[in-house]
């Protein structure tokens, strides 16, 4: 009578242990025999997409590859006023998609009728901007979302509050539960919103067709306007796929814009507010000119009501030239060709 | 698991632990290597991106590309790659590689600066490009608006020079042109002072743009230089080398682990194989040992059970299953107590050590109880207590033991002497009876031969016969004489049996003998018991019969007389009843003694039954001798017996018959003696009576009378006559005595003195008495109703009647039946009857008196009444026996007796009835006395007994006569 059961059991245990050990040993040997990591790196894809291109502007893609479910979820969140403290304001309140993604006001109006200091930029094509906000304080759309949400003058809420509210919604619980590992969370909400916003592309502007080779897409005035736009050096700054939005430039190179108008408020300090460097004072992210004809008023503080005025001011302070009405007309005509389509319809 | 094997377990465990540790470490170094590889990939990507960036920046600077989307993308990718690198670096740095950590910090700082440079390049380049784009148009516009004069022309030329210098400077790489541009700007500014304001403004705008170009071109070039040859590049390469070094170090470490792992695995494999081998060998040994143990336990012939510390059965062999009647599977796992209920086997469960018990029981599955022997051993298994029990069926052993015990008991307690010898007749064992018979104990004869008992009376050939018989037949039986230890000879009945062994040789002799001397004694005793009366020691009826027969036979040969006497002890019954059987027995013994004392030795005295003795007088010469001998016996009884403080008077009634005069056969003689003895008793006891033929005739007559009496009641042959009693004081008849008359169809009128004793003897007196009582009462009631007479009726009660327990009830019933008062009935009882059992008589008399009846003592004076008793009886009347009255006038003794009785009656306030008054002088004598007492006269002188219808007539006559 062995203490540890019958001899047969003991033998079985030992045999199993032996086999397990053998397997373990073989596994370990195989694992360690796998080739050591090589220092040689494979070439990275993507760099070739930057093609040689003399044109300062490039066309928008027809569509962007995105997770359709996240886009749909983001669209719902975009329209959901629960993202504001008093459930009164949604993203779409200030970025109405049927209104070129911008509120048309000089500056934004938040909860309780509070009025902000900055003009609302359009949400369309914002995914092509190199950074977000006039002063570029958000490197991505995900970061951007936190701005209006937490701004007391805008939505005046915070993430825990929003997550709490959304978590009570069965739809959101299901949707986030399906799409995100952590369910409803601040990061997931931001991701969904950003994904949706990246889908807000307005392709097929006439200029884009022109750039793609359809020279008839622009009429003679518009063509002249485009040439003037380039000759005057506008395209030095308003360039690339988004016709701007890809770097920072100072306002008032050939004149003191803020001095001349006698107002130099904190919101006018631009990127200086972000970096604190003197060289960044009055520097703003170059605004995208896509759909610019639909996004009046203009400038960071919405202080310029018309496109012509904006063009005139740009000529004066950025070129040191008083543009003629004819020139302004041509440029304005050109800018009209930057208006694209959203969901097949012109903005 | 033995103690020797424990270290191997530890080794194995330690080996496994080391293996796991090595695997973990190897995996750790491996994951490091992976991270390093990833980091290397990132570094390479960064390098490439930097190259692309440099290319793009140069293209932008020289106008080959006109938008920033490309470099923006490159910067973003660079930032992503460096962030990824940071994550890898973080993991590597966490390992404590300070060199990599420091390099990475430097790199991130340089990268930030690099990105800053790119940003500043973008702004500066935009401005520079803006001015360079606009500059030709601005110059043209100014030139176009200048006057066509000399001054205008000169300015235009200067502007033209500035234009080329500025454009060359701005788009080219010629640093030397900066002086020319600056000079041109200064010259034109001076000239512009002279121009009209609108033109001047335009010129100044051109100059401003030229200044922008002049100013921004070196700045942008510097930035371009910095971007194309960034500080990050050497750092990236340095980082790559550092990481490579780290990876190599990790690889070396991993190699060492791998080696160690392989070695350890081999070692473990070897160890495990070794252990397995040994284990298998052990298992085989264990199995062999198990099989061996199983074979032992199955063939041991005992039931074996083993229990664990809780008493649960963990082992049971086949025999255990067979003995208990349960399947082995049904036993295993069960608690012993539950598995074998009602067995004593488990009661030793908690005992320690080894216990042996031959007296346990096992209740089998079918409920039968098996006697078993049990060996119970506590076992220590791994520090816990268990038990092993071996048990066997003791049924046969027990039975054998019982047989042996029985044999031993027989040996010990046998009344026969038993002697066991070996084959050489040397005594081994003798039993207590041997000692009792021979006087030799076992110690005295063991080792000797039976020759110690030799009497010397038997010849040598006697013993030779014995031995040859034993040899040939195996046994010998016979009677022989032996000698006891005390030298006495004794006869014995000896039976010897030879006990043979397996091979037919004689191993033992067993001799059993009985002491015949004792046997003969008991034979005598039995004979005595059969022939003698144990109480008196006299021969009993059996021996008497024998002697009588012998005497008759003896008598026939000579001319002799044989006398047979039956002697009955008078009133012995009274002694027995009043003083007890013990006294009675003592009296009988004393009587026997006196009988023997008065006779010769040759005479035989026997006790026939209770109080009856027989005396056989053999060889007597004449009848007178016999009579005198009988008289002597009677005289011997005149002396009282003193028994246990009691002085008892008793007497004999002796009947005598003679042979061959009366009869010559035993039966007739005995009957004759019996008849004669009853004759003597009837003669009043204490007397002797010779048998006569007349006596036999009377006996025959009595038989016939008895038969007649049996029919008389039914036949209505009885009648009552009444004899009046004349009261002297009231001079009238107050009572009539009912007297029974029988007129038999066979015998005619029969006297009451003839048939009453017969009726009493055969018990017919009871119904006859009842008839008398009822008839008398009916008559009195009739007289009262008719008014003929108002008298009391006196009815005689016989002794038998008086002793009937329901007498009082009978009387009460009759009185009630005829609506009579008790005082109208007088019951007469003889003195001797009353005296027979005084206590009972008093009770009966009281019962009758309670009914109101009057009690009269009949025939007073003939018995021997105790006056003391007389006082106690509830009496009303004494009737003087007529024998006394008859003598009145002639016999003075009788007169004295009568006188005394009358006085007695007066003193006791009793009425006196004088019976048998027949003569005048008797009457007058009584009348003289009558004044003293309440006296009544009865007799022929007054009136003879008459039938009922004549009574009334007499009464009427007597009233008138008086």
Which descriptors would you attach to this protein?
heterodimer; A: mainly alpha; two-stranded antiparallel ribbon; two-stranded antiparallel sheet; 40% helix; elongated; disordered N terminus; B: 962 residues; alpha+beta; 5-stranded antiparallel β-sheet; 58% helix
Commentary on this structure:
The complex is a heterodimer of chains A (347) and B (962). With 347 residues, chain A is mainly alpha-helical. In chain A, 40% of the residues lie in helices and 3% in strands. Chain A contains 14 helices and four strands. A two-stranded antiparallel sheet of chain A has the order 1-2. Chain A starts with 6 loop residues before the first helix and ends with a strand. Mean pLDDT of chain A is 86; it is low at 1-5 and 34-53. Chain B is α+β, with helices and mostly antiparallel strands. Chain B contains 32 helices and 27 strands. In chain B, a hairpin with a 5-residue loop joins strand 9 and strand 10 (506-515). In chain B, helix 1 runs antiparallel to helix 6, helix 1 (6-61) packs antiparallel against helix 7 and helix 3 (98-145) runs antiparallel to helix 7. The longest helix of chain B is centred in the N-terminal third of the chain and has 68 residues, at 232-299. The mean pLDDT of chain B is 84.
Which secondary-structure class do the elements of chain B indicate?
alpha+beta
Beta-strand residue fraction of chain A: under 5%
Give me the strand/helix succession of chain A: HHHHHHHHHHEHHEHHEE
Give the CA-based shape of chain A. elongated
Q: How would you classify the quaternary structure?
A: heterodimer
Strand content of chain B: 15-25%
Order of strands across the widest beta sheet of chain B?
18-19-21-22-23-24-25-26
Low-confidence stretches of chain B: none
Averaged pLDDT of chain B: 84
Largest sheet: spatial strand order of chain A: 1-2
Low-confidence stretches of chain A: 1-5, 34-53
């Amino acid at each position: 009578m062995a203490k540890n059961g019958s001899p047969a059991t003991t033998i079985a245990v030992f045999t199993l242990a032996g086999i397990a050990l053998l397997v373990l040993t073989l596994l370990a040997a195989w694992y360690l025999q796998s080739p050591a990591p090589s220092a040689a790196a494979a070439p990275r894809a993507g760099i070739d997409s930057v093609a040689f291109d003399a044109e300062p502007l490039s066309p928008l893609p027809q569509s962007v590859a995105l997770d359709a479910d996240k886009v749909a979820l983001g669209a719902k969140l975009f329209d959901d006023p629960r993202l504001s403290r008093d459930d009164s304001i949604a993203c779409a309140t200030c970025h109405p998609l049927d209104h070129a993604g911008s509120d048309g006001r000089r500056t934004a109006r938040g909860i309780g009728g509070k009025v902000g200091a900055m003009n609302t930029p359009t949400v369309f094509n914002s995914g092509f901007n190199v950074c977000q906000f006039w002063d570029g304080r958000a490197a991505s759309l995900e970061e951007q979302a936190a701005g209006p949400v937490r701004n007391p003058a805008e939505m005046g809420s915070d993430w825990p509050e929003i997550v709490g509210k959304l978590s009570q919604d069965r739809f959101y619980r299901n949707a986030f539960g399906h799409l995100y590992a952590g369910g409803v969370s601040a990061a997931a909400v931001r991701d969904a919103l950003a994904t949706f916003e990246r889908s807000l592309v307005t392709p097929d502007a006439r200029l884009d067709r022109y750039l793609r080779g359809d020279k008839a897409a622009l009429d003679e005035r518009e063509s002249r306007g485009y040439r003037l736009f380039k000759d005057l050096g506008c395209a030095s700054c308003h360039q690339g796929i988004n016709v701007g939005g890809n770097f920072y430039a100072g306002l008032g190179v050939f004149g003191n814009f803020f001095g001349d108008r006698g107002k130099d408020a904190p919101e006018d300090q631009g990127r200086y507010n972000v970096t604190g460097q003197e060289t960044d004072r009055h520097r703003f992210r170059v605004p995208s000119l896509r759909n610019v004809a639909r996004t009046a008023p203009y400038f960071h503080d919405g202080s310029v009501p018309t496109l012509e005025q904006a063009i005139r001011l740009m000529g004066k302070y950025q070129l040191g030239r008083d543009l003629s009405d004819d020139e302004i007309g041509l440029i304005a005509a050109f800018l009209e060709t930057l208006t694209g389509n959203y969901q097949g319809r012109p903005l | 698991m033995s103690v020797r094997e424990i270290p191997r377990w530890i080794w194995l465990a330690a080996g496994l632990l080391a293996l796991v540790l090595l695997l973990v470490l190897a995996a750790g170094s491996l994951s490091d290597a992976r991270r390093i590889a990833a980091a290397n990939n990132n570094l390479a990507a960064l390098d490439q991106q930097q190259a692309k960036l440099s290319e793009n920046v140069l293209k932008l600077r020289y106008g080959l590309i006109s938008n920033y989307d490309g470099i923006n993308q490159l910067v973003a990718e660079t930032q992503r790659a460096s962030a990824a690198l940071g994550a890898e670096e973080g993991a590597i740095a966490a390992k404590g590689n300070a060199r990599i950590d420091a390099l990475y910090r430097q790199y991130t700082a340089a990268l930030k600066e690099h990105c800053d440079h790119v940003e500043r390049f973008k702004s500066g380049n935009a401005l520079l490009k803006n001015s360079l784009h606009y500059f030709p148009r601005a110059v043209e516009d100014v030139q176009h608006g200048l006057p066509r004069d000399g001054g205008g022309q000169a300015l235009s030329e200067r502007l033209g020079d500035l234009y080329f210098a500025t454009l060359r400077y701005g788009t080219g790489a010629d640093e030397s042109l900066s002086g020319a541009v600056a000079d041109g700007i200064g010259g034109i500014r001076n000239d512009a002072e002279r121009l009209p304001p609108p033109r001047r403004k335009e010129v100044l705008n051109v100059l401003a743009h030229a200044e922008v170009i002049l100013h921004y071109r070196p700045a942008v070039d510097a930035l371009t230089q910095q971007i194309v040859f960034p500080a990050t590049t050497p750092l990236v390469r340095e980082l790559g080398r550092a990481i490579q070094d780290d990876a190599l170090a990790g690889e070396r470490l991993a190699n060492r682990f791998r080696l160690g792992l392989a070695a350890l695995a081999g070692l473990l494999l070897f160890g495990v194989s070794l252990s397995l081998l040994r284990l298998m060998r052990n298992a085989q040994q264990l199995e062999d040992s198990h099989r061996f143990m199983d074979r032992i336990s199955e063939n041991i012939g005992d039931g074996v059970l083993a229990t664990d510390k809780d008493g649960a059965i963990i082992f049971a062999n086949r025999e255990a299953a067979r003995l208990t009647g349960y399947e082995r599977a049904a036993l295993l796992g069960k608690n012993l107590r539950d598995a074998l209920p009602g067995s004593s086997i488990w009661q030793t469960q908690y005992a320690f050590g080894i216990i042996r018990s031959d007296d346990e029981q096992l209740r089998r599955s079918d409920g039968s109880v098996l006697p078993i022997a049990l060996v119970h051993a506590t076992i220590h298994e791994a520090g816990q207590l268990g038990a092993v029990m071996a048990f066997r069926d003791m049924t046969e052993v027990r039975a054998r033991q019982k047989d042996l015990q029985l044999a031993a008991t027989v040996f010990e307690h046998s009344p026969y002497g038993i002697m066991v010898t070996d084959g050489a007749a040397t005594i081994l064992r003798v039993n207590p009876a041997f000692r009792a018979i021979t006087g030799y104990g076992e110690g005295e004869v063991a080792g000797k031969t039976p020759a110690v008992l030799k009497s010397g009376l038997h010849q040598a050939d006697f013993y030779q016969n014995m031995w040859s018989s034993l040899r040939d037949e195996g046994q010998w039986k016979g009677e022989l004489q032996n000698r006891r230890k005390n030298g006495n000879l004794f006869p014995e009945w000896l039976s010897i049996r030879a006990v043979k062994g397996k091979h037919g040789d004689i191993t033992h002799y067993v001799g059993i003998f009985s002491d015949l001397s004792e046997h003969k004694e008991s034979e005598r005793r039995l004979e005595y018991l059969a022939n003698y009366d144990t109480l008196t020691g006299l021969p009993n009826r059996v021996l008497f019969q024998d002697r009588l027969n012998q005497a008759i036979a003896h008598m026939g040969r000579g001319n002799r007389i044989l006398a047979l006497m039956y002697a009955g002890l008078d009133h012995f019954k009274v002694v027995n009843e009043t003083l007890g059987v013990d006294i009675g027995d003592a009296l009988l013994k004393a009587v026997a003694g006196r009988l023997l004392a008065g006779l010769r030795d040759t005479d035989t005295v026997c006790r026939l039954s209770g109080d009856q003795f027989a005396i056989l007088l053999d060889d007597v010469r004449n009848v007178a001798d016999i009579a005198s001998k009988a008289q002597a016996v009677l005289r011997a009884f005149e002396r009282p017996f003193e028994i246990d403080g009691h002085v008892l008077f008793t007497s004999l009634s002796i009947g005598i018959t003679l042979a061959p005069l009366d009869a010559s056969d035993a039966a007739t003689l005995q009957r004759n003696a019996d008849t004669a003895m009853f004759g003597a008793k009837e003669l009043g006891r204490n007397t002797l009576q010779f048998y006569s033929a007349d006596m036999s005739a009377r006996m025959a007559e009595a038989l016939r009378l008895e038969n007649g009496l049996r029919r008389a009641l039914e036949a209505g042959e009885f009648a009552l006559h009444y004899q009046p009693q004349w009261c002297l004081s009231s001079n009238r008849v107050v009572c009539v005595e009912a007297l029974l008359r029988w007129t038999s169809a066979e015998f005619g009128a029969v006297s009451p003195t003839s048939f009453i004793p017969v009726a009493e003897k055969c018990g017919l007196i009871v119904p006859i008495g009842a008839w008398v009582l009822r008839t008398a009462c009916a008559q009195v009631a009739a007289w009262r109703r008719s008014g003929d007479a108002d008298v009391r009726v006196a009815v005689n009660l016989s002794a038998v009647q008086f002793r009937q327990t329901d007498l009082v009830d009978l009387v009460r019933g009759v009185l009630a039946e005829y609506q009579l008062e008790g005082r109208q009935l007088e019951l007469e009882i003889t003195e001797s009857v009353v005296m027979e059992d005084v206590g009972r008589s008093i009770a009966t008399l009281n019962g009758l008196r309670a009914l109101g009846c009057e009690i009269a003592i009949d025939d007073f004076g003939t018995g021997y009444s105790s006056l003391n008793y007389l006082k106690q009886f509830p009496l009303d009347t004494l009737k003087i026996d007529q024998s006394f009255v008859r003598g009145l006038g002639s016999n003075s003794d009788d007169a004295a007796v009568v006188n005394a009785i009358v006085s007695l009656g007066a003193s006791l306030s009793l009425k006196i009835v004088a019976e048998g008054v027949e003569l005048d002088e008797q009457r007058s004598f009584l009348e003289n006395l009558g004044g003293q007492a309440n006296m009544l006269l009865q007799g022929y002188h007054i009136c003879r007994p008459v039938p009922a219808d004549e009574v009334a007539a007499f009464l009427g006559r007597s009233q008138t006569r008086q």
